[in-house]
Amino acid sequence: MKAIVTYFSASGVTKGVAEKIANAIDGDTFEIVPETIYTPQDLDYTNKKSRSTIEMNDKSFRPAIKETTDLTNYDTVLIGFPVWWYTAPTIINTFIESCDMTGKTVIPFCTSGESGISTCENDLKSMYPELNWKPGRKLNGNETEEQIKNWIE
Length: 153
Description:
Elements: E1 3-7, H1 13-25, E2 28-31, H2 51-56, E3 76-82, H3 90-98, E4 105-111, H4 118-127, E5 132-133, E6 137-138, H5 145-152
Helix pairs in contact: 1-5
């Protein structure tokens, strides 16, 4: 299995988990970077006018990303993100729509202080039913390499 661990990380937590996954499965990584980086004010979910709140209230919004990546040489694409408003941030939709994932196994993973991954998975599966989704996981970075390998395989 040739895998790539793609991820969006606003604060660095998801990046750390993505790197741990990549190390455990000997996969490559690709960071999904917004064209305009999120500031702490942009991420203030208590502010109805913050950038993240505005984006998450409009499910059709697609934040621009700096670049995408060619997935041709990969069998498996892991997609990681922090949970925002109980689901994946809309930048994940931007990434999915920018890549050809035909024939790939796609595995989501998330980081979150409270929320699980089930709503994220259901939303992504309903938006992209043509993709070959495998069950995802909420990860906190404390998982062992063995636990990660068992989940992926």
